[in-house]
Structure formats: structure tokens, C-alpha cells
Specification:
The protein is mainly α and 136 residues long. It contains four helices and no strands.
């Protein structure tokens, strides 16, 4: 049963973080001017791939520990803060301080939402599987 919960958590973390993180990365290209559609799409796909790795780690922890949605949200926000610190230390900067602040808040919000949704899907799916087993 715990293995199923870990797999569901990992899949949920990858899917939610890839979708939400890719959206933020893609939208960030519009703050530096008017990119062509191809660049925004390419950056969004690269961001999705990059964020899915963090989502995998987040989902594995949520699945292994069985966190509730509120605690998953806190863990996702903490992971996102570490991600933002990494980006700043790696030298990723925007052209303006306001854009940097907006996307910092966006990344932390995306992490919190990813943690919340992953924990919600994991706990709901496990309750559904348990109820189906008890009926059979």
C-alpha cells in the first residue's frame, strides 16, 4: 500500500510541477520584451523538465510520509524557496527588480500549490483505493 502511495505522490508531483513551473518559465520570457512564440515555448518546455525534477522529489517525500495537504503546501513552498536561492546564486537575474520579485513570488506560489495538489491527490486516491478494498 505504501509503494502505491509513493508512486502516486511521485507522479502527481512531476505532473503538477511540470505544468505549473513550465507556465511560470514560459511567462517569464514576456517580461524581457516580445519573444517569438517559439522561444517562449522552448523555455516553457525546458522549465517543465527542470521543475519536474523538483516535483519528483517533492512527490516522493509526500508519498513516503503521507503528508496532509497543508503540510504538503508548506513543504512545496520550502522547496521553492531553496530553488529560488539556487537560481539567485547561480546568477539568474531578470532585467528589473520588480520582475525578479514577481517571479520569486510566482515560484514560491507554484511550489506551494504543487505540494498542496500532490498531497491532496495522494490522500484522496489512497482513501478511494482503501474504500474499494474494504467493499470487495
Amino acid at each position: 500500500m505504501k509503494l502505491i502511495r509513493i508512486i502516486i505522490g511521485a507522479l502527481g508531483g512531476v505532473v503538477f510541477s511540470a505544468l505549473l513551473g513550465g507556465a511560470v518559465f514560459g511567462l517569464s520570457t514576456y517580461t524581457i520584451g516580445k519573444p517569438t512564440f517559439g522561444w517562449a515555448l522552448m523555455i516553457a518546455m525546458a522549465g517543465s523538465l527542470y521543475c519536474s525534477l523538483g516535483g519528483l522529489a517533492l512527490g516522493l517525500v509526500i508519498g513516503a510520509t503521507g503528508l496532509q495537504p497543508f503540510h504538503g503546501m508548506l513543504l512545496g513552498a520550502a522547496l521553492s524557496v531553496m530553488f529560488v536561492i539556487y537560481l539567485v546564486l547561480a546568477g539568474a537575474q531578470s532585467y528589473s527588480a520588480s520582475a525578479t520579485a514577481i517571479f520569486t513570488v510566482a515560484f514560491i506560489s507554484v511550489g506551494a500549490l504543487t505540494g498542496f495538489l500532490t498531497a491532496m491527490v495522494t490522500s484522496t486516491t489512497m482513501r478511494w483505493i482503501t474504500s474499494k478494498r474494504s467493499v470487495s
